[in-house]
Amino acid sequence: MVGGYFGKFLRVNLTDKKIDLIEFTENTLRQYLGGTGLGARVLYDHTGSPTDPLGPENLLIVMSSPFAATPIPTSGRIDVVAKSPLTGIWGEAECGGYWGSGFKQTGYDGIILKGKCNSPSYVLITDEKVEIKDARHLWGLDTYELDERLKKEISPKMRALVIGPAGEKMARIAGLFTDGMHGRAVGRAGLGAVMGSKNIKALVVLEGSKRPTLVNREKLLESIKKITPDLVQKTEKRKKYGTLASIPFCEETGDLPIKNWAGDRFKEGALKISGERMTETILVNTYHCNNCPMSCGRVVKIDQGEYAPVYGSGPEYETGGSFGSMCLVDDLEAVAKAHELANRYGLDGISAGNAIAFAMEALEKGLITKKDLDGIELTWGNGRAMVEMLHKIGQREGFGWILGEGVKRAARQIGKGAEEFAVEVKGLEPPMHDPRALASVGLAYATHPRGACHTAMSQALEVKMALPDMGYPNPLPPFQVEGKGVLVATMQDYIALFNSLGICRFMLFGGLTINHLAEWLQNVTGWDITVEELKKTGERLTNLKRMYNVRCGISRKDDTLPPRLLSHRRKEGGAVNYLPRLGEMLNEYYEYRGWSEEGYPTRKKLKELGLTDEIKDLPYPT
Amino acid sequence: MVGGYFGKFLRVNLTDKKIDLIEFTENTLRQYLGGTGLGARVLYDHTGSPTDPLGPENLLIVMSSPFAATPIPTSGRIDVVAKSPLTGIWGEAECGGYWGSGFKQTGYDGIILKGKCNSPSYVLITDEKVEIKDARHLWGLDTYELDERLKKEISPKMRALVIGPAGEKMARIAGLFTDGMHGRAVGRAGLGAVMGSKNIKALVVLEGSKRPTLVNREKLLESIKKITPDLVQKTEKRKKYGTLASIPFCEETGDLPIKNWAGDRFKEGALKISGERMTETILVNTYHCNNCPMSCGRVVKIDQGEYAPVYGSGPEYETGGSFGSMCLVDDLEAVAKAHELANRYGLDGISAGNAIAFAMEALEKGLITKKDLDGIELTWGNGRAMVEMLHKIGQREGFGWILGEGVKRAARQIGKGAEEFAVEVKGLEPPMHDPRALASVGLAYATHPRGACHTAMSQALEVKMALPDMGYPNPLPPFQVEGKGVLVATMQDYIALFNSLGICRFMLFGGLTINHLAEWLQNVTGWDITVEELKKTGERLTNLKRMYNVRCGISRKDDTLPPRLLSHRRKEGGAVNYLPRLGEMLNEYYEYRGWSEEGYPTRKKLKELGLTDEIKDLPYPT
Fold first, then answer.
1. Which of B549, B568, B618, B620 has the highest number of chain A CBs within 10 A, making it the mutation to test binding with A?
2. CATH for A322
3. Residue B553: its chain A contacts at CB < 8 A?
4. Nearest beta carbon to residue A416 from set B421, B563, B619
5. Mean pLDDT (whole number) for A165-178
6. Ramachandran bin of A189, using left for φ above 0, alpha for ψ from -120 to 50, beta for the remaining angles
């Protein structure tokens, strides 16, 4: 047991209802921290290439972290790990809200679910015990309804991490959700389908009484106190307008995807769905996660009109893009409705928006007909049809079933040229940043262990952010190729730390540095951990996840982009004619990582990172 | 009946032994000429996406052309067309020799084989009749033996287009061969397997008495007489040393592939396997195809040493690369032996060399063992092992069976990372030019209708050739991106004409222009054909072949290169660090072609080319 940690990890076999605790050595905890890091260690050791992501042998790992339930800003985020049913490789996703700290307060640092319940169930975790309970009466409820119901049934203070109908029915783009109508989403990689495959509707925690030991509480509080004003002040715009505020700016620079990644401009539309517009119209409140000094969450309300009622979590940058510009929908109320429906059904809003935009294009091109779509007029800009289709996806009805499988599988099913405009990397639909506007985004999508993922935030350094502590006293020019390999690798490793410590990467905007992470970790755990060791840890985590994928057959051939992003030009706007020079960036990236030209970690690198047992899993000596 | 043509096309149904003639309108002949052009028309109309390339429903189309059996230099080349068993898309290959003119002299312009014989057979074509004859006693003979046997059995004057044991056993990298020990190969795309699948061992023609009408014989002869000295003189080096002469130069510029496309230099090796070295050592004669003023063919003889006996066709540039530098074999005698064995077994030397180099890498990396290779020590540079493995491939024994399926399928079979270094485009192994040394080569490989194919000769314009008549008064810089889209499109269309008229593209080195083609076609057929019409014809053919592939599911996503060629740098030599900027070139190419950004011919373009019936085969309106 280490300061910060309880060191208690629940292992729940849903098949035979066996529940026990597992322990990790202090060395393992220090090497993998928690969250997706420690999750990677567990997933690597217990699943692999033959594991069916939707079979009982897959694990659903929900991890807390050493910072959870401490006063550290944004601490207590949830990190979920499983083999992804969407991509067939490494799956991770995380989110904020309050479940993470609540879980930690019951005395645990993680829960590993294996097997499958016979019938719909939920797991109730309290200070005293862990129970697998009947959830047949909860099956079919959407995530908002479910949260309300559980509050009534169990306690208004309970916190639930749940799936909606989409997850129950194992849509491969389903996520896990928490905080009810405030809709915090563990969105990506279809991990909600894994939970659904296990017949688990919710993981419920009841106000626990446990608090982690903090080895040096005073010092920690002092440090937090010192940085907090910056964290508040420098993130003000996000507090004021939410992340949706970025839509018009990203439209201008060519970073905002439009019309299934084939459009050029959405200038007026962007203004209509902007954070400013939302603030002036449907916004009724803001919402913040545990210990967050920023508060980027929105609460919106629509009482009348065709999209009423809407009440709860409002669109952020990603859903503003995926349901807005991607579908050419410039009606903020339609976007807000879609955002809410994605949350209620328990769908990844990024993937769902991509899937609908893809279907709009397929319809426009005549590869599918209105009849295939059960009569839905899914034309560009038709917000009502988008919302109807989202219902179908969430309920897994008709064509919605196909779209719920994700863009890659849907395209294969449609055939006849649809694969050409299916935009995904390793099976994961990309978020709302465009490799043709920001070079590093292409490399980040091509190399992230979960597929098209931008959360390494390299793009922030191509816009206006500097990170002197990470070697970037100034931002990098967005179209520059040189240095982007190092940038993406550096940031992927850095953000891997955030997702292992359970804190929010947006704190970077507020001036959080890696020195804070090291210092706080020292204060919480008592480890004499240095910035250098932390950097090495980040690198270890990325390499372990890469090795997970290598075992699944991934190599350089897969580190690529779909044609739309690689060679389809934008013809107007801020990114006109630019195409990402992926090959050159990849070379820099591999070289910096110490990976072979085929994209395999070398034995030397693995040894250096203490991943010697993984060497045998390389397809051949490197 | 048009001048140059007899207008008689044989249709042979091998299943029910029905043989008849089909006719084409003069308009069709003028629009598609002959060779791969008219072949494309037939294949398009009678096969498609569901056709099993090795099933009886596939066609094997062997086409002559309006220039065959005329005095036109290099005329009478053979053009073979079928759906490719190697790639599953458009398949074409052609070669020189004497069969084409011989066939024409029996009175036919093409033969279309459908169905399948019950037992090994051959087709005998004479002035008087066409017969399907028993070939059970010929089954198993290699192509050299077979030619000798048929000469004895039928007539020393017979000419045979045959398959070897590899084609009989439907190796997907098997070709058709002619001229016996002089080994002219219809190598690419596995068309020999199609012939094998039909149980046809040979197409034999007996000295026919027919001669095509030449509408303006005098003018034709005059024009030929005028250009011939140039054709002779300007191609002298090839006459003197064969195409193998280019090996050291291409090694210097980084154009010669080395060590399965991952090597950097082969400087001394290149000198040891050069055309000059061959001339000094094992060369005993040269060989030229019908009416050829150049004579690039070699005849070599090895009487002693471990590779004896070798006697017949000697290595050219492609086999020098594929069995030489690709396998790091610097022993000219081993390369000559491999060249002969490929011919004898009836294997495409390019694909076979690629496959062996691939296997050498798989062994080095430990993905396969010596045991998997039936004990063969298939290490880099081991010429003896290479020759042993070639026997296995030709006989389809042990691991040779897998390699005979081509690199793509072999990699899939091996798994465990082998796909990463499987170098192919659309399933076809590339010839011996490197996209990292000559930008246009990458685009040519990515876009040619049969997969990785360099025969559009764009690369010649990146080295030293100028083609003023095609708009290129000067060569283009090899690493330049701009203009390469137009260059590759222009040359693909141009060379499509050569392969429809049955003449050799090497005549370009001798100063042949498109004006000659137009003039000769006028003189032969009497058509008032212009250079402009010819260019349009070339474009029509490329578009028709593209449409064949579009029907098979091909689009921009497939117009790409494997990682080795796209993003793996050469670290030394003339092409150090250069990577082809494929996306940019593709855009220029599509734009120039009037294709959509998804790589589909637009309706407008198809209409313009008279391909209106094909519009319905687009996956969606473009």
1. B620
2. 1.10.569.10
3. 415-417, 419
4. B619
5. 98
6. left
Q: Do B621 and A365 touch (CB under 8 A)?
A: yes
Confidence bin at B1 (pLDDT 50/70/90) = low
* Chain B neighbors of A582, CB-CB under 8 A: 567
Say how far apart CA B292 and CA B75 lie, in whole Å: 8
pLDDT score for A480: 96
Judge if A415 and A444 occupy the same domain: no
Q: Which of B420, B579, B581 sits opposite A556 (nearest CB)?
A: B420
Q: What is the distance of C-alpha A264 from the center of its chain?
A: 27
Instruction: Mark whether B401 and B503 lie in a shared domain.
Output: no
In a domain? residue B510: yes
B420, B557, B586 ranked by CB distance to A598: nearest: B420
A586 touches chain B (CB under 8 A): yes
Interface of A with B in 548-567 (CB under 8 A): 550, 553, 555-557, 562-563, 566-567
What's phi and psi for A502, nearest 5 deg? 70, 35
- CB distance A480 to A439 below 8 Å: yes
Q: B326 vs chain A: nearest CA distance in angstroms?
A: 18
Interface residue B583 vs chain A (CB under 8 A): yes
Report which secondary-structure segment, H or E, holds A193. helix A191-197
CB contact under 8 A, A417 and B568: no
Residue B180's pLDDT band (cuts 50, 70, 90): very high
pLDDT surpasses 70 at A345: yes
Which DSSP symbol is given to A48? -
Question: What is the pLDDT at residue B3?
Answer: 86
The CATH number covering residue B494 comes to 1.10.599.10
- Amino acid found at B168: E
- Helices assigned H by DSSP within B106-242: 143-153, 165-168, 191-197, 217-233, 236-241
Same domain for A347 and A384, yes or no, is yes
Nearest CA in chain A to B419: A557
For A92-142, what is each residue's pLDDT tens digit?
A: 999 999 999 999 999 999 999 999 999 999 999 999 899 999 999 999 999
**Is residue B428 a part of any domain in this protein?**
no
Instruction: Say if residue A4's pLDDT is above 90.
Output: no
**DSSP E strands: which ranges in A267-347?**
283-287, 297-302, 310-313
Cα angle A164, A170, A174 (rounded to 5 degrees) comes to 55
Q: Which of A597, A616, A622 to mutate to test the interface with B (most CBs of B within 10 A)?
A: A597
Residue A317, pLDDT score: 97
Nearest CA in chain A to B582: A567
Classify residue A336: in a domain, yes or no: yes
Q: Are residues B413 and B471 in the same domain?
A: no
> Residues B247, B196: one domain?
no
- B569 to chain A: nearest residue by CA? A587
Contact (CB<8Å) B365/A619? yes
Rounded to an integer, what distance in angstroms lies between the CA atom of residue B622 and that of residue A114?
A: 50
C-beta atoms of B567 and A579 within 8 A:
no
Which alpha helices (DSSP H) does B287-331 contain, by range? 317-319
Give yes or no: residues A587 and A465 share one domain: yes
Residues A260-275 have a mean pLDDT of 98
Whether B215 maps to a domain, the answer reads no
B603 at A interface, C-beta within 8 A: no
Q: How many degrees, rounded to 5, is the angle at CA B603 between CA B602 and CA B607?
A: 120
Which residues between 414 and 433 in chain A have a beta carbon less than 8 angstroms from any beta carbon of chain B? Answer: 415-421
Q: Is residue B323 domain-shared with residue B392, that is, in the same domain?
A: yes
Is the Cβ pair B567, A583 closer than 8 Å?
yes
Q: What percent of chain B has pLDDT over 90?
A: 97
Give φ, ψ of A441 to 5 degrees. Answer: -60, -40
Domains of chain B: total? 3
Burial class of A129 by CB neighbour count within 10 A (0 to 12, 13 to 18, 19+): exposed
